[in-house]
Amino acid sequence: MTVTVRVPAKVNVQLAVGPARPDGFHDLANVFLAVGLYDEVTASPADSLKITCSGPDADKVPLDGTNLAARAAELLAARYGRSPDVHLHITKDIPVAGGMAGGSADGAAALVACDALWGTNASRAELLEICAELGSDVPFSLVGGAALGTGRGEKLSALEVGGTFHWVFAAADGGLSTPAVYAEFDRLSPDAAPPAADPSLLSALRAGDAKALATTLSNDLQTAAVSLRPSLTDTLAVGTAAGALAALVSGSGPTTAFLAEDAASARKIADALTASGTCRSARVATSPAPGATVVVA
Q1: pTM (2 decimals)?
Q2: pLDDT tens-digit map of 227-241
Q3: Of the listed 10, 39, 57, 106, which one is catalytic?
Q4: Beta bridge partner(s), residue 155
Q5: Phi/psi at 161 (nearest 5 deg)?
Q6: Residue 210 half-sphere exposure toward CB, CA atoms < 13 A
Q7: For residue 258, how far is the Cα from the chain centroid?
Q8: Nearest to 228 by CA among 187, 172, 176, 170
Q9: What pLDDT digit, counting tens, does each position of 250-283 carry?
Q10: HEC readout, the chain
């Protein structure tokens, strides 16, 4: 028996960041939107825990215990008193170290896949608890759709989305370390205010209004990401010139996200970005998308 779980990437349409907490994390008002770029994780029986990976950037994915998919299997197995003997194969399509929660997505997918393979029948609450232990973005990868994440991002409240949004995502050469971006944020923003969700942005999501959403997109980490990777300024400018309603760095970067008016506009923006040489690749996607979902069992 094998189980394959499909899991989406995410974009932060708002990422409001507060000052560093004593535990080193930051309080966030993080509005997540799942987008239709997917990884798949396939779980199959094995004599020990094994991680393999294929697809774009597969050579950049750790295949040891630091991989969140491996950690997910270990945590679920420990909770149910069994050995984490499973082969997890990750089919990558979400950019690696790109600010789109690809690693977090793999952790959520592995958790769902192992739960199905082993018949542990963990409750939704248990799965979310393990996800929060794995990382701040992992619970949203499980849930998908749209949600407001508070705390360090792991406490989720579902949000209503009234339509389909069209996006282009431009992948940069190389990644950016999330801890390094937060450290740069702390350096640049010593007086960061307590974070709060923008009511106008939440209203635009409910209405499915891309033009209204474009006026409210924000990412408090963008200045820090651009400080560490100044070339992102050129990528953002190309997408804006090609007709994007709005452009921003996705999460901690270095992937950049461009909100388009419709599918045709998204294709035009992607073509312009690809031709510009300012990014490694440009992908079109829509949102919202469902969270971790079993597709083969």
Answers
A1: 0.94
A2: 999 999 999 999 999
A3: 10
A4: 150
A5: -125, 125
A6: 20
A7: 15
A8: 176
A9: 999 999 999 999 999 999 999 999 999 999 999 9
A10: CCEEEEEEEEEEEEEEEEEECCCCCEEEEEEEEEEEEEEEEEEEECCCCEEEEECCCHHHCCCCCCCHHHHHHHHHHHHCCCCCCEEEEEECCCCCCCCCCHHHHHHHHHHHHHHHHHCCCCCHHHHHHHHHHHCCCHHHHHHECEEEEECCCCEEEECCCCCCEEEEEEECCCCCCHHHHHHHHHHHCCCCCCCCCCHHHHHHHHHCCHHHHHCCCEECCHHHHHHHCCCHHHHHHHHHHCCCCEEEECCCCCCEEEEECCHHHHHHHHHHHHHHCCCCEEEEEEECCECCEEEEC
Q: Which two tokens stand for residue 171?
A: 């992948």
Beta bridge partners of 107: none
Residue 266: HSE in the Cβ half-sphere, 13 Å Cα cutoff: 21
Question: Do residues 237 and 158 touch, judged by C-beta distance below 8 A?
Answer: no
The answer to whether residue 211 is catalytic is no
Active-site option among 27, 57, 106, 137: 137
Cβ contacts of residue 190 below 8 Å, gap of 6+?
Answer: none
10 is catalytic: yes
The C-alpha atoms of residue 246 and residue 213 are separated, in whole angstroms, by 9
